[in-house]
Amino acid sequence: MDVMAWARLLVEGATLQDKLTPISNAAPMGSWSAYPLPQTPGRPDKLAFSSEKTKFPKGQQLATKIGRSTAIHSFANHELLAIEMMAAALLVYPHDESDPATIRMKRGLISTIRDEQKHLALYLERLRDDGVEFGDYPMNGFFWRQMEKLPTAASFFALMALTFESANLDFSLLYEKAFRDLGDAKTADLLRSVYEDEVTHVALGAHWLGQWRGDKSLWDYYREVLPYPLTPARAKGADYLPETRVAAGLDRDWVERLGEFKDEFQVVNRRSWNQT
Q1: How high is the pLDDT of residue 269?
Q2: What is the mean pLDDT of the chain?
Q3: Does residue 242 or residue 264 have the better pLDDT?
Q4: How far apart are CA 47 and CA 40, in angstroms?
Q5: Is residue 121 part of a domain?
Q6: Does residue 60 fall inside a structural domain?
Q7: What's the pTM value of the predicted model, to 2 decimals?
Q8: Of 211, 218, 183, nearest to 102 (Cα)?
Q9: What is the domain-level CATH number for residue 73?
């Protein structure tokens, strides 16, 4: 199987096993042709997007079976969405075998997808520990709906790596601490592993935006290609950890500007982990 066929399977496949299909780092890329982005990725009915909302647990609720499984189910959904969106990026944005840069960019995405598949499998195992099946709670499709707003690979990396994955640098450490404080070392260790991989994913986006920004600052270029109406507020959690962005290779100007950025986005305007 070449990379393009694999990517189609990850986007269009109708089973969870399709989404977890591995591929060798040495797999041939395959030729690129225009790919019409589907309105929704292929999924079994149990994993179909839902408009139903689930309240995210906080504080001591995370110590209960239903609280932990609700949180982990949400994390697993984000990993599945990341697999599908990154696979879609392989298909939507062109590459040319004669252009080593585009091939390196896509090889970076392949490596990231492999990490996301690993994370998803770990979250599914943790759900099974609590007797929960993936899809027992509603599946949010917000991330996927942003794909149609991303005309270029730069806009994709601005959204996925420097916004959604950047925010997860804060959230993964926040919930690692929360579960560890509650005595749940297994979930805490899982979240630490996710964080460590997430640093490299943000670094990938920072690298490629740095290659494409021309004479603009990384912050200005990021703001330019980030699709409206999303703002940098979504690139951080309620407790912003700037050193994590430095670890991912983002320059100090970008890190400081993100820390200073404010709008009305609720998540960054509330207490991060209410113990009550």
Answers
A1: 55
A2: 95
A3: 242
A4: 11
A5: yes
A6: yes
A7: 0.95
A8: 211
A9: 1.20.910
Are 151 and 93 in contact by the 8 Å Cβ rule? The answer is: no
How deeply is 18 buried, as exposed, middle or buried, from its count of CB atoms within 10 A (0-12, 13-18, 19+)? Answer: middle
Q: Structural domain tally of the chain?
A: 1
Enter the tokens of residue 29: 């890329």
Q: What confidence tens digit (pLDDT) does each residue in 223-255 have? A: 999 999 999 999 999 899 999 999 999 999 999
Residue with tokens 């027992």: 136
Is residue 138 within 8 Å of 52, Cβ to Cβ?
Answer: yes
- Which residues are within 8 A (CB) of 204 and not within 5 positions of it... i.e. 6 or more apart? 108, 109, 112, 157, 161
CA Rg value for the chain: 18
Long-range contacts of residues 241-247, Cβ cutoff 8 Å, at least 24 apart = 241/169, 241/170, 241/173, 244/169, 244/170, 244/173, 244/195, 244/199, 245/166, 245/169, 245/202, 247/199
DSSP per residue over 124-191, as a string?
A: HHHHHHTT--TTSS-B--HHHHTGGG--SHHHHHHHIIIIIIHHHHHHHHHHHHHHHHTT-HHHHHHH
Residue range of the domain that includes 112: 3-19+55-269
| Assigned domain for 25 exists | no
